[in-house]
């Protein structure tokens, strides 16, 4: 990985393309350019057979310049640094600051590429790419460009190892609010890759990250605990706090499906809805009436006299075919 700084002072981590992938991309580009050059040459010769020798020589030189030199320049300019071979191998030409190239960058690369690739059969380009720390040939050096890899093989996500059981919950009183996200990311990346590092390098990185984390939390790291175990325990404590906060928010927030809008005058949920009186019937009070004191001997409920029926007109009686007794 190499670090490029953009005009906005933003550091970009890019993976420069090495010599084998660049050579294969150039070979594919040359094959495509030669096929196009042969087809164009046959077409030009067939259409200009009646011209004299000087005109045919001039057309041959123009065809060579336009197809083998102007073609790659135009392709890189229009595609912002992705020729046919680079597209097949996942490469791209970018500026030194990580931005897309323009016509002047492609022109310088193409003009110098004629000397270091076509005239010397790629020997100068290979030597320059091997000497350069970022694999740049002379055309890249003069144009201020760099060939980087766009497609990086996707690896498995880093597994952060859990802390030792005797450290679980020990750092529950630490104040983690002042720790920036960049430091958390660096700690997680170190914990996921520390098994693949040199032991001395891993110990040095763990101590430096532990010191930075202790300075942010305001509590020194215990000397009897290894730095890597301290980092794993603090990361586990942060994850536990975030999980508790998420579960608490999900517990006290009612689901959206059960949030029914309450209409004006509607009773709250969970309370019985009082029966509404029928239309045309007098509304009576819903308060319970006090039982009347009997003045005579108690009567059985079966012998109680029912209330006389209401006098209804024939038009108001239901048409059921049943005639009540007189």
**So what's the overall shape?**
elongated
Global Rg:
43 Å
Total count of helical runs of at least 4 residues: 9
Runs in which pLDDT lies below 50 for 5 or more consecutive residues are: 1-12, 262-266, 275-296, 300-305, 317-323
Mean pLDDT: 75
Instruction: Provide the succession of SSEs.
Output: EEHHHEHHHEHHH
Helix amount, in percent?
40-55%
* Total beta strands: 4
Query: Largest sheet, if any?
Result: 2 strands, antiparallel
Tell me what portion of residues adopts beta-strand conformation.
5-15%
In whole angstroms, the N-to-C terminal distance is 108 Å
Class from helix and strand fractions: mainly alpha
Which strand order spans the largest sheet, edge to edge or round the barrel? 1-2
Can you characterise this structure?
With 326 residues, this protein is mainly alpha-helical. The longest helix is centred in the first third of the chain and has 29 residues. The protein has a two-stranded antiparallel ribbon with strand order 1-2. The termini are far apart. It is 46% helix and 6% strand. The chain has nine helices and four strands.
Characteristic terms for this protein:
4 strands; disordered N terminus; mainly alpha; 9 helices; two-stranded antiparallel sheet; two-stranded antiparallel ribbon; 326 residues
Compose a concise summary of this entry.
Helix content is 46%, strand content 6%. It contains 9 helices and 4 strands.
Question: Would you spell out the secondary-structure blueprint of this structure?
Answer:
Elements: E1 2-5, E2 11-14, H1 19-47, H2 53-78, H3 84-89, E3 91-95, H4 103-119, H5 123-131, H6 138-143, E4 145-149, H7 181-193, H8 199-217, H9 227-252
Antiparallel strand pairs: 1-2, 3-4
